[in-house]
Specification:
Blueprint lengths: L1 H11 L5 H11 L3 H11 L20 H10 L12 H6 L3 H10 L10 H13 L8 H22 L2
Length: about 160
């Protein structure tokens, strides 16, 4: 891959934007394990992947070190995770969703599919009674509060 990129840049660099050229330059100076992680993540279907779901057998570095190389090299932006409750629920495992469903006292949750569990959790949170004069703010507050709990549970399970 290194040869392909260098050949294209040598002969056709005028076809790229400055940001793209910068990306190629930053990629070329990464350590091998960071490049490997980048290619593996690029080939995944999902935008967000937990470290625990990536099989990493590289003895020279941890997955956190390889990821740090991608962030430090401006290949990946550092982020705090998904932006919405649905995106956070999408990265939870079925077992975790069942735990949240049990905690929220949803009925007949054990036989439901993952998508149904997510939908039921969101519906349950949005219908939660709150003491506020503004129903829109109440729903947003309930969602924010639940989102905070989900984020914390995901971070703790790394």
């Amino acid at each position: 891959m290194k040869n392909i990129i260098s050949t294209v840049l040598e002969h056709e660099s005028h076809l790229f934007l400055p940001e793209e050229l910068s990306l190629f330059t930053n990629f070329s100076i990464l350590r091998a394990e960071s490049k490997l992680l980048f290619i593996r993540l690029l080939n995944r279907r999902h935008k967000l992947v937990r470290f625990s779901q990536i099989k990493w057998t590289n003895v020279e570095s941890t997955i956190e070190e390889a990821c740090s190389g991608l962030c430090d090299g401006n290949i990946f932006a550092k982020c705090n995770g998904p932006n919405s409750l649905l995106e956070w629920l999408n990265i939870l495992t079925r077992k975790e969703l069942l735990g949240w469903a049990k905690m929220r006292r949803l009925s007949n949750f054990s036989k439901k599919k993952v998508d149904e569990l997510r939908d039921d959790l969101i519906r349950n949170i949005k219908s939660q009674p709150t003491f506020s004069f503004n129903p829109i703010l109440s729903v947003n507050h309930a969602c924010e509060e639940f989102l905070f709990k989900v984020k914390n549970s995901v971070v703790e399970s790394k």
